[in-house]
Design goal:
heterodimer, A: 309 residues, alpha+beta, Cyclophilin, 2 domains, seven-stranded mixed β-barrel, 20 strands, B: 233 residues, Gyrase A, domain 2, seven-stranded mixed β-sheet, 13 strands, 33% strand, hydrolase activity (chain B), nucleotide-binding (chain B), hydrolase (chain B)
């Protein structure tokens, strides 16, 4: 009999993700991948999985999974009021599951997205080198066509009974996913096209994450930032790019961003800030602070090295 | 006329370097960028992760752990000068013919484009058919080809309110650009017709001229010509 996890309820939005799909942006294929890569990487790390292993990303909760195998799982990210067979289970730890165990995610206590990894990773097909689900591109996921997880989906994974010790992250290492967030900004090449007033507005005000946000982009609402005049031709846009459309309300491009964008850009946020941003539910407030390229690269280097990426 | 190409570097993000090109033969830039992309991937594969061309820009994603920005810039400068000096045999752009059904239910904005430009719908179709377009970028969604070369008299602003659902295959105009929507989705372009064609296939085999692995029928620098297929009544 095959081993794996069965989806009882898909919840609001649950998808399979891995490090993402690279090398095809020139055809319009977005990289995709987990919205909060740090939490996703920690889920694998708690199980000694390689960083390439597929995980389940649960956004906003409501997902129920039934284990059809004996194995160890790890849950990280936001606290979505997880229960295992009805018993509350705090995130940021690994634990054994046996056939028939039910993992039920409620609605967020803090954070917005939870990650579930299993020892050895979920065994799912790759499309263009990745299983990352991108609905808009019709790529990835269990069936390869970008569909998110559906009730009765069966996600194969290997059984595991080898000696392992359940692990728990010490509290001081658990990322802070609920206090007010400051996003670090690397000013970009169009910075001089924005007026001093526009920058002043941007640095000194709070912006609220709106309900139109998703893992393609975080749409913010706050005092309008006057965009420079003139029309730009579309340009390739990188992760974290802060676009300012005509209404002056910034959009921060995230993991599933479109590959090209035509709006003026203030710069881009540090990816580590972006992963944190993806854990803030709509209605949360963010502020911005500048960061130099060298400092930003140093922080990213440390992160990539730590997770063996 | 001798072609002169110059470019600038600028920092786009923590691992992304943008090259912005200017040329006195701007129409040739997309093809040059596609060649340069290949050269970068071939020669700098140990430090470069992805290269994305669009219009007159090239975004180079690099691994900041294995290369310093300054060294990467030197290597890129060298590749550009090599391309210029050795004058690589200019790859012949492919010309793709795309049959289009204009107007009717498939082109709900044909009348709007005509009215805004003080033309008749037939004149709009005629002018849209007359040009050979250059694929200036692929993006937005897989296989979406931004075509430049639109007749000045067809330049039309985007719809004030984008449609929630544009059918796959719709041929649209937005500003100075025209394109075919590869898949259904939201969009604000003026729709003037429909082209039944596959624009993206992960399994390749879609355009043998670009090799068996080609996932899109055109690449940046190629040309597209629309041909009239017969109208719906």
């Amino acid at each position: 009999m095959s081993t794996g996890m069965r989806v009882i309820k898909s919840g609001i939005h649950a998808t399979l993700q891995d490090q993402g799909r690279y090398g095809f942006q020139h055809l319009g294929v977005t990289p995709g991948g987990p919205a909060d890569a740090v939490s996703a990487n920690w889920a694998n790390r708690l199980l000694d999985n390689g960083p390439e292993c597929a995980v389940i990303e649960i956004t906003a909760g409501g997902t129920e999974l039934e284990s059809h195998t004996h194995s160890m799982v790890a849950v990280t990210g936001g606290d979505l009021n997880l229960t295992v067979n009805g018993q509350p289970k705090a995130p940021w730890r690994s634990f054994w599951v046996k056939p028939g165990d039910v993992l039920k995610f409620g609605y967020p206590r803090y954070g917005f997205r939870a990650y579930v990894a299993v020892a050895g990773g979920f065994q799912v097909p790759n499309v263009l080198g990745s299983c990352a689900t991108v609905a808009r591109n019709k790529l990835g996921g269990l069936t390869g066509d970008g569909c998110h997880l559906q009730p009765n989906d069966f996600i194969p994974c290997a059984a595991s009974s080898q000696e392992r010790v359940p692990r728990q992250m010490p509290d001081k290492y658990v990322p802070d996913l609920h206090s007010e967030l400051t996003l670090y900004v690397i000013p970009g090449y169009q910075q001089h096209e924005f007026s001093a007033e526009a920058w002043h507005t941007f640095w000194t005000n709070e912006y609220e994450i709106t309900t139109e946000s998703d893992s393609m982009g975080a749409r913010l609402h706050g005092p309008a930032i006057a965009p420079p005049s003139g029309n730009l031709l579309s340009e390739p846009v990188c992760y974290g790019a802060i676009q300012v459309p005509g209404d002056g309300q910034p959009i921060i491009l995230l993991q599933q961003r479109q590959t090209l964008g035509g709006y003026p850009k203030l710069g881009s946020i540090l990816p580590l800030s972006g992963y944190n941003l993806a854990q803030r539910p709509p209605g949360s407030k963010v502020r911005f602070q500048p960061m130099g390229l060298a400092t930003a690269q140093q922080q990213m280097r440390r992160y990539l090295r730590f997770f063996g990426l | 006329m001798h072609k002169t190409v110059s470019f600038d570097f600028s920092v786009a993000g923590v691992d992304a370097l943008l090259m912005t090109f200017t040329s006195n033969a701007a129409d040739d830039l997309p093809l040059l960028l596609t060649q340069l992309r290949q050269q970068i991937l071939t020669n700098l594969s140990d430090v470069v992760v992805d290269v994305v061309p669009a219009y007159s820009t090239l975004l180079v994603y690099y691994d900041a752990r294995t290369v310093r920005l300054y060294d990467l810039q030197l290597a890129l400068e060298h590749l550009v000068s090599e391309i210029e000096q050795t004058r690589l045999p200019q790859a012949q752009p492919l010309l793709l013919e795309v049959p289009v059904v204009y107007g009717g239910e498939h082109g709900p904005d044909l009348e709007r484009v005509a009215a805004l430009n003080k033309l008749t719908p037939d004149q709009v179709i005629e002018k849209h058919l007359a040009a050979d377009y250059v694929v200036a970028a692929l993006g937005f969604s897989p296989g979406f080809a931004y075509l430049s070369g639109l007749d000045e008299q067809l330049v039309t602003p985007r719809l004030d309110t984008p449609r929630k659902q544009v059918p796959a295959g719709s041929v649209g105009i937005a500003g100075v650009q025209t394109a075919v929507y590869p898949t259904a989705g939201p969009g604000g372009w003026n729709l003037i017709g429909k082209a039944q064609m596959r624009w993206f296939n992960v399994n390749g085999n879609i355009q043998l001229a670009h090799g068996p692995d080609a996932m899109t029928p055109v690449q940046v620098g190629d040309k597209v010509r629309f041909i009239r297929q017969g109208d719906t009544t």
